[in-house]
Write a structure and sequence with these properties.
By secondary structure, this protein is α+β, with helices and mostly antiparallel strands. The chain has 5 domains: 76 residues, Nucleic acid-binding proteins (OB fold (Dihydrolipoamide Acetyltransferase, E2P), Beta Barrel); 68 residues, DNA polymerase, domain 1 (Orthogonal Bundle); 48 residues, no CATH class; 71 residues, Arc Repressor Mutant, subunit A (Orthogonal Bundle); 57 residues, no CATH class. 50% of the residues lie in helices and 18% in strands. The chain has a 5-stranded mixed barrel. Strands 6-8-7 form a 3-stranded antiparallel beta sheet. A hairpin with a 2-residue loop joins β7 and β8. The two termini are 59 Å apart.
Length: 369
């Protein structure tokens, strides 16, 4: 896809919503776009979208082999329709509970271009329309209010540089609290939403005016550094190494890192312990998981073998005969060790025969149960 600087802009009336996922926000729209004689296909993300709305999008054209020419929108903003045709399509799309095509036509015929303003500011007048009683009017008003909240959230997120796809995920996760969460602590996004990490949250935080030395940023940086270490196979980091690493990528004074670390320890988000003579810091959940593994290992080692004594010299030829496989010496040795061990870790790259070893152990063990 083209870079943002090279992105094309497209706007127009949504004629039809071909597909919309309420979970991810992914949508496929048919849009009557300015400068195009025929309706075009727009693919993007929107928290909610309906026929009749006006959309503004930026992105690039893509000639898909299966779906022909499409406009792939990196940014997609929907706004209320301004034409009678758009208003009727929008109200009749099913997005507003209590209004279908029939009532949409009646509302537009009765109120004209003021219909959306009436729903917004003077919903009591809805009962002027034939067939709309107090129950239906309340349903329409509540649904309109819900949609208004979503749209305000999306506008806020777009104004602060959040792309449409991420904005949809934020909106779906926090609902009406999205603006509050983002304003108070955008780093919470990295904890709660898959696909949004510290660096994305940090960019958002900068755009909404959070200082680089803010304690919420430094504390989030501690967690991020430990998470990065976890991705490299480490359960924790030496305290001094974590201190240096966090201070370097956050670009803040060491005293702030030390204060943030103390606060994280005090609230139980991270845990301190010694590995040998080295003071280390761990993510609390990972630390507890490691201790749980150690506890279960001790329990298994203290218990009995899961099967009676097995003669490996007889079992190995037996399994080769049953499977029709000739075991390599390393495989035979691994099986022999497993038959006399309470705990065994089998490692190796692809194609070295781990599956054969495990299946052989299981077949031998099942025979002796």
């Amino acid at each position: 896809m083209a870079d943002t600087a090279q992105a094309e802009v497209l706007s127009g009336l949504v004629e039809r919503v071909a597909f919309h996922s309420s979970g991810s926000g992914f949508c496929v729209l048919r849009v009557k776009a300015r400068g195009h004689r025929d309706a075009v296909t727009v693919v993007g993300n929107a928290a909610m979208i309906s026929a009749g709305e006006w959309v503004s999008a930026s992105g690039s054209w893509n000639n898909d082999r299966n779906h022909s020419l499409q406009f792939r929108a990196r940014f997609l903003k929907a706004s209320a329709p301004t034409t009678l045709e758009g208003m009727q399509k929008y109200l009749g799309s099913g997005m507003i509970r209590g209004i279908g095509p029939v009532y949409a036509e009646r509302l537009v015929r009765h109120f004209g271009k003021d219909v959306l303003d009436i729903i917004e500011a003077n919903p009591g007048r809805l009962r002027e329309v034939e067939g709309i009683g107090p129950v239906r009017a309340d349903k329409i008003t509540a649904s309109w209010s819900d949609q208004k909240i979503v749209r305000e959230i999306m506008v806020f997120l777009h104004q602060h540089g959040v792309g449409t796809a991420r904005a949809v995920r934020i909106c779906k996760t926090y609902g009406a609290d999205a603006v509050r969460v983002l304003s108070e602590n955008p780093y919470q996004l990295a904890k709660d939403i898959r696909g949004i990490g510290f660096r994305t949250a940090d960019t958002i935080a900068e755009k909404i005016g959070i200082e680089r030395t803010a304690m919420i940023r430094v504390r989030a940086g501690i967690t991020f550094a430990l998470s990065e270490a976890m991705g490299n196979g480490h359960c924790g980091l030496p305290r001094g190494e974590l201190h240096s690493l966090a201070g370097e990528f956050l670009d803040v004074p060491g005293a702030l890192v030390e204060t943030a670390m103390a606060l994280e320890l005090g609230e139980g988000n991270v845990t301190a312990d010694q590995v040998g003579d080295t003071d280390c810091i761990f993510l609390a959940g990972l630390y507890q998981a490691e201790r749980g593994i150690a506890s279960h290992m001790r329990r298994i080692i203290a218990g009995a073998l899961p099967w009676p004594s097995i003669d490996a010299d007889r079992a190995l030829p037996w399994i080769e005969e049953r499977t029709g496989l000739a075991l390599a010496s390393s495989q035979a040795e691994a099986i022999r060790l497993a038959l006399t061990s309470k705990v065994l870790i089998i490692t190796g790259g692809p194609g070295v025969g781990k599956t054969t070893i495990v299946n052989s152990i299981l077949r031998i063990g099942n025979i002796r149960k």
